[in-house]
Amino acid sequence: MDYPDFSLANRVALVTGASQGIGFGIAKALAHAGATVAVAARSAADLERLTKEIRAEGGTAQAFALDVRKIDQVHECIRSVHGSLGGLDILVNNAGLGANHPAVEVTESDWDEMMAVNLKGLFFCCQAAGRIMLRQGSGRIINMSSQASVVGIRDHAVYCASKGGVNQLTRVLALEWSASGVTVNAVAPTFIYTPGTAERLDNPAYRQGIVNRLPIGRVGTITDVAAAVIYLASPAGSLVTGTVLMVDGGWTAQ
Ligand SMILES: NC(=O)c1ccc[n+]([C@@H]2O[C@H](COP(=O)([O-])OP(=O)(O)OC[C@H]3O[C@@H](n4cnc5c(N)ncnc54)[C@H](OP(=O)(O)O)[C@@H]3O)[C@@H](O)[C@H]2O)c1
Questions:
Q1: How high is the pLDDT of residue 196?
Q2: Which end of the chain is less enclosed by CB atoms within 10 A, N or C?
Q3: Domains and CATH numbers, the chain
Q4: What separation in Å is there between the alpha carbon of 38 and the centre of ligand 1?
């Protein structure tokens, strides 16, 4: 038999929202697995620090400015990555916001901002990268979802709606593109300790409440999420498409 191959040598990967948290870690893990990594976000200084860290570990990385709410910037970023790095094999749509409000307090701008980043920006990144991948007859797209895409989380109405939308976009794109060699999947983590969640998870009572709901007995790490991304991006994951891979410590098994 052939043994599963998790190597990403000779692949070019783009990670959005790579300036901190999960995206930062995914970029480092992709580089460690052998990919040349394009890292994109708005915070240039943080991307600079990331590319330095990747290069110091022997990897190859380049930073690209990107606000996923601006669709012209999405096109420009994907064009530049493809031009500068000589290809685009893997797209990780990680950029996302996670604000929480009781539903009765959500404003129109709260709704528009979250949907612009989590859903609209993600879709147009898929579309721009998908056009290149369909032309070349191969590609991997991995969308960052959440356990909140399949279960309700109190005070997260807009977030849950946006991530439910991510799952549905993932399924439709997989149906349209898989026969042309482009797989499209989502990864759905539970609570992960990042700068985006640190304030809440550093509160011992809040953290204990979360851990009590997690059959695995701990919150997740960035490495837990990166491992799922590497699998879906690698040759080992080539039969997997249109799926939402829960990395949730069993939260949604209940
Ligand atoms: N942490 C968790 O518990 C958890 C659980 C499930 C799912 N997730 C999902 O995982 C992803 C990352 O979460 P995280 O906790 O690592 O978040 P985070 O620490 O808040 O980081 C968010 C990242 O997204 C980028 N971003 C935000 N708005 C952007 C925009 N308009 N254009 C481009 N990039 C933008 C930020 O970069 P700039 O500000 O530099 O642009 C930053 O790099 C999100 O999609 C989130 O929904 C997180």
A1: 87
A2: N
A3: 12-245 (3.40.50.720)
A4: 16
